[in-house]
Every structure is written in C-alpha cells, then in structure tokens.
Design a protein that fits this description.
The complex is a heterodimer of chains A (212) and B (324).
Chain A lengths: L1 H16 L7 H30 L8 H23 L4 H10 L1 H18 L3 H7 L1 H8 L1 H16 L6 H26 L1 H4 L2 H14 L5
Chain B lengths: L16 H16 L9 H12 L23 H4 L14 H5 L9 E6 L5 E4 H5 L4 E8 L4 E11 H8 L7 E6 L23 E5 H5 L4 E6 L2 E2 L9 E3 L12 E7 L6 H5 L23 E4 L6 E2 L7 H4 L13
Classes of the chains: A mainly alpha (212), B alpha+beta (324).
Chain lengths: 212, 324
C-alpha cells in the first residue's frame, strides 16, 4: 500500500530527472499532485463501502494511511502553488483565494483536512473519545465534496474528467446513505435518534386513549 | 496514470539547425537583393512544389518580415508542437501531438464564400502560392500561458481582396473541419461532447483586414504540423489563442456576428471579442499575469498582448469590459 501510494511521487521524480515534465512543468506538477489528492481521498472514502459490500473487516486498516496520503498530496499541491506558481506573492494569492471560488473551496478543503490529519493517531482517538472523534472525522465528507467542486470549477467547459470524480464520490456517499437508512429501518430502537424517539413519543400519545 | 510520450514527429524531421540558419542567411541575402519583393524565383517555386507534396515537418521557407518581430526569444519548437489546445484531438494539452496523426491534410480545399463578389474554393496548393512571409508573434492562451512562435503565412486581407467582400459584409467566420474519423475529439464521450462541432470562430471585418491577422501554413521553417492546425489556420496575435481557428475549411463573410464555439459553450466566460486584456479577468481565473512557457516566474500580461499600438484604435468607443 505504501508503494502504491508513493508511486505517483516516484513517477513525478522520474519526470523531473528525465526532464519529461512537458512544456509547462509547474502546471503539470500542480495538476498531478491535485489528481492524486482526489484519488487518495476517494480511495480512503471507498474503504467503508467496500467493507460493507464484501464483509472484509481488515480493509479498515487501510483507511488511515490513505487519508494521510490524501492530506500529504494536498499539502504538496498547495505548496507547489505557493512556492513555484506564485513564488510567495501573498497579496496576489490572497486576492485569488477570496476572488476565485475554486481556490476558496480548495483552500477550505485543505483547512478541513488538517485537524483530521492531526487527530489520526490512536492516542488522539482515545483522548477525544471514539464518538467525538467519529463526529469530527465526518468533516472528510465535506472536504471531499469541496475537493471535487474545486476540480469542477477550475476545469474548462468541455473537460469531463471532474465529472468522473463527482460520479464516484456520489456513489461512495450514496452507499453510506443507503446503509444508514437501512440501519435505521431495521433497528429503530437501537438507533435512538431524536427523530425516532420523537416519532415513538407521538405514536404513544396518539395510541393513548385514556381521557385527560 | 498519465503516460507522457515524446512528440510524434521523428527527430529526423527536425530541421538541422545549421541548415535552418543557412536558410535564414540565404533569405536575408535574397531580401537584400530585392529578390523577395514580389519576384518569385524558380528556386522558390520548386521549393513550394516540394512543400506542397510534403508531409508534416517538411521544410517551408519564407523570408522573415522585419516589421513583425518580437523582442523576446523564440520558444522551443518542441514546446510549441507538444503543448497546446486543439479540442478536435482531445481536451488535454498533449492530445494534439499524441493523436494528430489521424488528420489528413491533403487533398484540402478552403471555401471562401458568403457576402463576396467572387466566391472561390481554393486548393491548399493555391494558398501556398500566396507570397509567404515569416512573422514572430506572441501567442497568449486564455489559460494564462504564452509562447513566442515564428509563423509562416500571408495576411488574410490578401485573400479577402481576391474574393471582394460586398458592402454588406461585416464579419468573417472561420469553420474548422468536422470529421470524427480524423478528429477523435469530435466523437462524443460518456459525458457528451466537449464542444459543439464544427468549431467556429470569427472576427469583425476590420479585424480580419488588419495587417496583423495572418493566414498561416507553417511555423519554425516547417509546414504546419497537424497538432498546430494544419494545413491552414488563422493567427490573431492580440486575441486569446482560441480565437485563432485551426484546420480551416470554410471562410464565410456575413452581415451578422458569427456565433463562436466558445461563446456557445460558456457565454458568461468567453465573448466574441476575447481580446487579451489584463484588466478583465476570466470569471474563474485572473488574466493579470501569465507564464511564458520556458520561464519560471509569472510575467505581467500586456494589453492586447503587447499589440496595443497597432490595434487599440479598432476599439475606440467600445466598452471592453462589456465586450470581453
């Protein structure tokens, strides 16, 4: 898994060494790192659906590594933009972050991923408590949606690849929604959600025919 | 994974630099002797005949017009022929060089029609007999990168004078070949087609008649490579690159403003004029700076891509923020 996750970096390094980055090396490196950020993010989000579909519990051990690699690629993607593309021209970058929605959402996604990467250790899970940790890490759904939106908004009309990512993300999130709905339907009492409790309460009141 | 390949032309097709420089000197000498001032020598004729038969990458000679040179150094031919947009081949910038082989540039005819007194269908060989010259232009892509390229061609005005536009003609429309067999990018994919085919571009008649507007058949001393819009394209250096239609089969004079492909695809992002303008941003990215291919730092984008002295007068009284 480490090898697979590092392969894109090795490929980029190879391109640098053989001077094979094309006519616009900075754009090429930025785009490649951005592609792999999204791929890693989608791969980490594919773990749970795959586990649900195949019943292979061990898959969950891959999730943290994939998530951290997604973050690492995002940081590199951002660094190339800061250092190579704009060469620390902070005013111009700040203007772009505010003015261009695709950069705004891309920056937001990176900011959202940061606490997830910082709390990825077993110690942090313990310190936060499993429930709070899980709630915090639901931010990855928002980050993934913003990441795909970032790609959709920066691509020119006619470029369809962002839609492939959007379709995969929709599928991965869709599986989760279906699974959650089923869980709720099959075990309403165990769910103990506010809505379910309220529904039960209303039902009891309606069934309660005692005069008042 | 993205696999990058070398450009499709063989190294043997690249003009040897010594020959290239020798030719430059020959042309300079010929110019000095006044040979190129409209007098076509036998040598030139046979060279043109050779170029006419030639595959892409074949040498094509034309004297450099000293009135159209650029202060910045030329970009490498490898970059200009391997990194560009030509959606007919695909939406990635290495697609044209990778997939350009399927385009057949001979036989090739160009219909010049519409509001003209003498409509005519030109064979590509006829177009190659126009007095050709080399001009070094800057090409600024709407994606905020640029290159300095030596083109070979002749002013569009020379062609239009032959067909005699009528007094009602106000615009010129350029139509690119539509043939999915030759242009794989024109086949619709899973998510539909990238653009509405055929590719249509257009200019106002006075823009078309401007001496800078060049009908182009070659670059870097060679016949135009397929990936750069062979065999016949227009180059309009003060507008974003997509305004310079490639692989043109039809030039039509009209009374109404042509509906261009990018305008149809995203009217809020691409206007009919599309003049290079650092003060009018693309809605999703800034046009204030650009990266010259081969350079590290961004450079400031110039008004009308540096051709303001020549073309600004075309637009007096026109609100360029509104007519982007």
């Amino acid at each position: 898994m480490w090898l697979a996750a590092l392969a894109p970096l090795a490929y980029l390094a190879g391109c640098v060494l053989t001077d094979n980055l094309g006519a616009n090396p900075i754009d090429f490196v930025t785009d490649t790192l951005g592609d792999w950020t999204l791929r890693m993010l989608l791969a980490s989000l594919a773990v749970t659906p795959l586990r649900l579909l195949t019943g292979q519990a061990w898959l969950v051990t891959l999730r943290r590594l994939l998530g951290l690699f997604a973050f690492a690629y995002a940081v590199m993607h951002f660094s190339v933009w800061v250092v190579l593309d704009f060469f620390f021209d902070w005013p111009l970058m700040a203007a772009d972050i505010v003015k261009r929605p695709y950069i705004t959402v891309g920056m937001t996604a990176l900011v959202l991923l940061t606490p997830l990467a910082l709390t990825s250790t077993a110690g942090m899970v313990k310190r936060l408590g499993a429930r709070a940790w899980r709630r915090l890490h639901r931010l990855v759904y928002v980050a993934a949606i913003l990441g795909v939106l970032h790609y959709l908004w920066l691509a020119k009309v006619g470029v369809k690849t962002p839609w492939v990512y959007a379709a995969i993300l929709a599928l991965l999130l869709g599986i989760r929604i279906v699974a959650a709905v089923r869980r709720r339907a099959s075990a309403p009492r165990a769910g103990a959600s506010v809505e379910a409790a309220r529904a039960r309460w209303v039902k009891r009141r309606l069934e309660d025919t005692r005069p008042r | 994974m993205l696999i990058r390949r070398a450009p499709t032309f063989r190294s043997s097709e690249i003009t040897d630099e010594k020959l290239y420089l020798g030719r430059r000197r020959f042309i300079a000498g010929a110019t000095a002797l006044g040979l190129s001032g409209g007098i076509v020598t036998d040598a030139l004729l046979s060279e043109l005949a050779e170029a006419a038969k030639a595959p892409q990458g074949a040498p094509l000679k034309a004297p450099r017009n000293p009135a159209f040179v650029h202060a910045d150094p030329l970009n490498k031919i490898e970059d200009a022929t391997s990194y560009n947009n030509f959606y007919e081949f695909g939406v990635n910038k290495d697609d044209p060089a990778r997939l350009g082989g399927t385009l057949k540039t001979r036989p090739w005819t160009v219909k010049v029609e519409g509001l003209v007194a003498k409509p005519k269908t030109y064979d590509i060989d006829e177009l190659l007999r126009f007095p050709l010259e080399e001009r070094v232009y800057s090409l600024r892509c709407v994606e905020a990168w640029s290159m300095i390229i030596p083109w070979i061609g002749f002013p569009l005005s020379a062609l239009l004078k032959q067909v005699e536009p009528t007094s009602t003609a106000k615009y010129v429309e350029f139509v690119t070949l539509h043939d999915p067999q030759q242009f794989p990018g024109q086949k619709p994919g899973f998510f539909g087609s990238s653009l509405d085919w055929p590719y249509v571009e257009g200019l106002r008649l006075d823009e078309a008649m401007h001496p800078l507007t060049l009908m182009t058949v070659g670059m870097y001393g060679q016949v135009l490579p397929n990936q750069n819009g062979a065999p016949f394209r227009v180059v309009v250096p003060w507008k974003y690159g997509f305004k310079s239609g490639k692989s043109i089969v039809r030039v039509r004079l009209t009374a109404d403003q042509p509906k261009t492909s990018w305008e149809k695809a995203a009217p809020q992002e691409y206007g009919f004029y599309s003049n290079v303008n650092p003060t009018v941003d693309h809605p999703r990215w800034s046009q204030a700076t650009e990266r010259r291919i081969g350079e590290f730092r961004r450079r400031k984008t110039l008004m009308f891509n540096g051709y303001a002295d020549q073309v600004a007068s075309l637009y007096t009284g026109l609100d360029l923020k509104k007519h982007y």
